[in-house]
Write a structure and sequence with these properties.
The chain has helices at residues 22-35, 83-88, 99-104, 109-121, 134-138, 142-153, 159-164, 184-201, 204-209, 223-228, 244-252; strands at residues 9-14, 42-47, 63-66, 93-96, 125-130, 167-170, 212-215, 234-237. The chain is of the alpha/beta class. An eight-stranded parallel beta barrel has the order 1-2-3-4-5-6-7-8, surrounded by four helices. The two termini are 16 Å apart. The mean pLDDT is 95. The chain binds 2-phosphoglycolic acid.
């Protein structure tokens, strides 16, 4: 993460359960590979559905991530895929604790914690998602929700991993896929709160160096503001990452 002393911005594409054919996936990858300027200022991570991974080679242009992993390495867990298997396939990153999984798949903070620990053990970097719902925000509970998700999610994680291998993605649930986004001030205060929690759990240095990225309705128009005005160290891009030329424009902004 600190190659040549430069801390690159981390731009993650979360394709979710899209696109429905390999042909479309291949088209996106082709456009991204041809379009993005390779730069030490940016690290691009593409997280496609598992099926497409063997046909996608990142190489110099980008790294590959998965959108979920199971917490055991192998065993009688029908339908699951482990961090160990992901690593075998050349995967370097795993999105863990995305709100859609918390919502639709019943993922709890305890499960998220097991997955984070398993990913780290297998040298897969977790992109650990936290975020509040609209209701929680309206009730002024956002800070408590985020603090709690971080404390529980990171239980048992040694400090050495935090700066080197872990990324926290602040993704307000109300901003995902809605076109609504927080202000730069809102994002900055949430990042400050995240660093306070990390300082309490670990120490100030760890907190200051931990990469925090933003996700939720990122597009090629607002991407620069999240990084330059709100001070985010990267972006988690959902919908806009399926529009290959828009994703290329986002990456090339940095
Ligand atoms: P969005 O999704 O960019 O479509 O809002 C972001 C995410 O859920 O990671």
């Amino acid at each position: 993460m600190f190659e040549n002393g430069i801390k690159p911005k981390i731009i993650v594409a979360n394709w979710k359960m899209n696109p429905v054919s390999f042909k479309e996936a291949d088209n996106i990858i082709r456009t991204v590979k041809n379009g993005i300027k390779i730069s030490e200022n940016v690290k691009v991570v593409i997280c496609p559905p598992y099926f497409y991974i063997p046909n996608i080679k990142g190489g110099k242009s980008f790294d590959i991530g998965v959108q979920n992993i199971f917490w055991e390495d192998s065993g009688a867990y029908t339908g699951e895929i482990s961090a160990k298997m992901a690593k075998e396939m050349g995967v370097g990153y795993a999105i863990i604790g995305h709100s859609e999984r918390r919502m639709h798949l019943g993922e709890t903070d305890a499960i998220v914690n097991l997955k984070i620990n398993s990913a780290l053990k297998n040298n897969v970097k977790p992109i650990f998602c936290v975020g509040e719902s609209q209701k929680e925000r309206d009730e002024d509970k956002a800070g408590d929700i985020i603090s709690n998700e971080i404390e529980k999610g990171l239980a048992g994680v040694p400090s050495g991993y935090l700066v080197k291998d872990l990324i926290i993605a602040y993704e307000p649930i109300w901003a995902i896929g809605t076109g609504n986004t927080p202000t730069s001030d809102d994002i900055m205060s949430m990042a400050l709160l995240i660093r306070k929690v990390i300082t309490k759990l670990y120490d100030r240095k760890t907190a200051d160096n931990l990469p925090i990225i933003y996700g939720g309705s990122v597009n090629d128009k607002n991407a620069t503001d999240f990084v330059e005005k709100a001070g985010m160290e990267g972006l988690l891009v959902g919908g806009a990452s399926l529009n290959a030329s828009e994703f290329v424009r986002i990456v090339n902004l940095f």
